[in-house]
UniProtKB/TrEMBL annotation:
GO terms for MF: acetylglutamate kinase activity
Pathway in which this enzyme or protein is active: Amino-acid biosynthesis; L-arginine biosynthesis; N(2)-acetyl-L-ornithine from L-glutamate: step 2/4
Official protein name in the record: Acetylglutamate kinase
Native organism: Schaalia naturae
Function: Catalyzes the ATP-dependent phosphorylation of N-acetyl-L-glutamate.
Reactions this protein catalyses: N-acetyl-L-glutamate + ATP = N-acetyl-L-glutamyl 5-phosphate + ADP
Stored NCBIfam families: argB
Length: 304
């Protein structure tokens, strides 16, 4: 690969990153790493390299991970099933135990270990730790009707202090989307990781929320993949929301919640493409779908 890039081109690439490094140095970027983007070991390593690159150059990355396919695999091994309603897993007490075990015991541990192979700054947290999250049970809304999905919650409160203190200590927080049930002392709820990431991004005053998934971005006429939307506003997205399907429904609700919470930019990017995160942040072109608040469009210098 390096043989094919001339020294001038290499210098050009380095120079292109400079204004972006300046722009994002010191800023918090929340990265939602979806279970569908954790395809294989080399991709996971590329993800870890990108996070470490950001951290090395003074950006303050916070990782919120998913693990839907990994939970499915464990449920299948145990002969259990937990279907989804509008992108939310129907979670019984038995399923909740597996969700917690896989997210905290497997996915989070693997990510922390991967990030700490080159440096020792990554630390795992879940919603119960230091009161990070509180959640309340919520139904799935299917065709405007509530459907009971069991022990599924939405975040009602974020205590950003433990994450901020890790960031101030130079650490990389890696967060699992399990949260205490505020109505049931000792109980825990399964929270969609997109929704957890967006609540956290708002509470942290993040500059960007990046969502790494297994599609190039948001397509206009799903399941047709010919028209990728490269940029849209929250107002445009709100109009599309009722027609959203499967995993994209909570993801887009999460994007809107993040924008409503003051995060200036949300990006949906293809986590199957190595280094898509760096391309998004550090090149002029960007990749995937960028969603911004319509009212912020008048201030283009903010939306870069
Ligand atoms: N309009 C759309 N554009 C892109 N993907 C869509 C759309 N509507 C539904 N999807 C589905 O949403 C999926 C991404 O959501 P999800 O499976 O929850 O991913 P993740 O595990 O990364 O959170 C895609 O793989 C695709 O099947
Ligand atoms: C309520 C709910 O559906 N929770 C999700 C939590 C994990 C998640 O969101 O993982 P992805 O980001 O990989 O989809 C689940 O049980 O699968």
């Amino acid at each position: 690969m390096s043989d094919r890039i001339s020294p001038q081109d290499k210098a050009g690439i380095l120079l292109e990153t400079m204004p972006w490094l300046r722009r994002y140095s010191g800023q918090i970027v929340v990265i939602k790493y979806g279970g569908n983007a954790m395809v294989d070991e080399s991709l996971k390593r590329a993800f870890a390299q990108d996070v470490l690159f950001l951290h090395q150059w003074g950006v303050r990355p916070v990782v919120v991970h998913g693990g839907g396919p990994q939970i499915n695999a464990m449920l299948a091994r145990l002969g259990l099933e937990a279907p989804f309603e509008h992108g939310l897993r129907v979670t019984t007490q038995e399923v909740m135990e597996i969700v917690r075990m896989v997210l905290l015991g497997k996915v989070q541990r693997e990510l922390v270990s991967l990030l700490n192979q080159e440096d020792y700054q990554a630390m795992g947290l879940a919603g119960e730790d230091a009161g990070l999250f509180r959640a309340r049970r919520t139904p799935a809304w299917v065709d405007g009707e509530p459907v009971d999905v069991g022990l599924v919650g939405e975040i009602t409160h974020v205590n950003a202090a433990p994450v901020l203190s890790l960031l101030d200590a130079g650490r990389i927080p890696v967060i699992s989307s399990v949260a205490p049930d505020e109505d049931q002392p000792g109980g825990v709820l399964n929270v969609n990781a997109d929704l957890a990431a967006s609540a956290l991004a708002g509470a942290l005053g993040a500059e960007k929320l990046l969502m790494l998934t297994d599609v190039e971005g948001l397509y206009a006429n799903w399941p047709d993949r010919s028209t990728l939307i490269s940029r849209l506003t929250d107002e445009e997205l709100r109009e599309m929301l009722p027609s959203m399907e499967s995993g994209m429904a909570p993801k887009m609700r999460a994007a809107l919640a993040a924008l409503d919470g003051g995060v200036p930019m949300v990006h949906i990017i293809d986590g199957r493409r190595p280094h898509s995160m760096l391309l998004e942040i550090f090149t002029d072109d960007g990749v995937g779908t960028m969603i911004t608040a319509a009212h912020a469009e008048a201030f283009p210098e903010v939306l870069r």
